Amino acid sequence: MIPVFLGVAMxxxxxxxxxxxxxxxxxxxxxxxxxxxxxxxxxxYHLDQPVWLRFLYWLWDLLHFxxxxxxxxxxxxxxxxxxxxxxxxxxxISLLLAVxxxxxxxxxxxxxQYSKSDYAxxxxxxxxxxxxxxxxxxxxxxxxxxxxGWLPSSGAAGITYNWGGNVVLDWLAHLALxxxxxxxxxxxTIVRLVRANMLExxxxxxxxxxxxxxxxxxAVTYRYALRNAITPVVTVVGLSFGAALGGAPATETVFSWPxxxxxxxxxxxxxxxxxxxxxxxxxxxxxxLANLITDLAxxxxxxxxxxx
Amino acid sequence: MRKKEERRxxxxxxxxxxxxxxxxxxxxxxxxxxxxxxVGVLSPYIAPYPPRSYAPLYEGVAGQPPxxxxxxxxxxxxxxxxxxVIHGTRNxxxxxxxxxxxxxxxxxxxxxIGGYFKGLVSDVILGVTQVFFVIPALLLILLFARxxxxxxxxxxxxxxxxxxxxxFGWSGTAFIVRGETLRVREMDFVQAARSLGADxxxxxFRHIVPNxxxxxxxxxTLIIAGFILTEVVVSFLGFxxxxxxxxxxxxxxxxxxxxxxxxxxxxxxxxxVFSVLGFNLMGDGLSDALNPRLRE
Lengths: 308, 296
Known about the structure:
The complex is a heterodimer. Chain A is mainly alpha-helical. Helices cover about 75% and strands about 0% of the residues of chain A. In chain A, α1 packs antiparallel against α14 (about 275-300), α5 (about 75-110) crosses α8 (about 165-200) and α11 (about 230-245) runs antiparallel to α14 (about 275-300). By secondary structure, chain B is mostly helical. In chain B, α3 (about 25-45) packs across α14 (about 260-290), α10 packs antiparallel against α11 and α13 packs antiparallel against α14 (about 260-290). The radius of gyration of chain B is 23 Å and the shape is elongated. At the A-B interface, α1, α6, α7, α11 and α12 of A face α6, α7, α12, α13 and α14 of B.
């Protein structure tokens, strides 16, 4: 985890550095700064030091939760917290829905292999797997927000759509489209995987043995096969979470969802480097934590992993 | 005659091809890929307008929905969507294919060297591969594209996107190649070649790598699909090259005309879905055909 974190920190720092000196940005706001001011700022940003030392200063600040000051003049850390929560809200709800729907659907599809419903499910899944998430979002906005006018197209809370002042309904209405889109894409991955794993496990000898010993088909499917088919799903759920967070700039921009991704896209657009670096670091930490949780969950589900 | 053929036996690739040919969805996928490649190659000859042309504006058809003359409609700015989707096909396939080939080369080199040698080299390579595997790549790709493409190396255009994608994309291939190399390294035919005096380079690239190509081919096909999707995100967010037509750039324009010109976002998106679907179906088919465990 730590090498990954350092790697990402290095990449974001040096790329941000390639964008130009922070002094160039200051010059936009201060028309004719005096040489003394420039000198002071140069010292403040450690520009009189070599690059690698500047990286260490930056890393030191990072470890003290100081991500610098964005071009809007506010500290990056003050801005990021609320965005992170909105992003997590969207991602966690979608991921949970995808898992809860995806596992039974995948099992059903495997148990009815080559039936009509199996073909329907696999087709549905491979389309979700091949679709740009944000594009599906655009299509749903066109249909449900602009043509039918049922659901809001942007934001996390309503200004015009108040649903008679009902806060919960308003919240659900704003979640509906982004959650549908994100759930569908993750669902597709989970269904494909559960189906493939189930089919593989059902062919194995211990399933035959369980059937031969007179267990009901239900017990064989759920207690023996599913238990073995489900462990790799945990890894994929972890990876999907990372992928969805990485894709957040596009999906959140489409829905103007006030989260980290939308902020990233805007900040990168106007070259607000400290903010971009800060968001990249925070998302990296979230992805790494998700991976850690995945590994722990894997150890709980699969006793063979625990010994190592 | 017939008996002789049977005795000679079919090569690994012939068996795989026979299995692939029987897989209906794999064939559909291959047909879709072939169609898009054909469109991409012929794009200068079949597109009614040159790239980024505003000619329809002067014909007075700007902002028109799909019609017989303009099957995918016209943007309010006057750009013909049908032509642009065709030009985008060429550029997006170039990015997907070139980046995937580069990724395959990097992945094979890194994976094979890391799997073949033991000790410090192998450990360092494994560490670096793991870092690249868990990095939130899409985010860094966006950041690199925004800063390098639009500030530092202006004018490199799509080639720079190819380089960025492969810089962040090789770790999966490297992992597979490493695992396979570890497995094949100790096999008898490699030992035999070694005892005949073959050096490491010859062993690696004449004996080991040709024998581990099938999983690499499968993952590379799937990586093409992934890279097309990534490129679409980069251009959609406006981090790509604004002067080169790509499906993502069209979706970006479609998103800004979302209230009036729905067709600008619909058709480039369908092109993305079906090309990516084609590569995914093809990759799944290859995976089944080349998987020895499924062989009957």
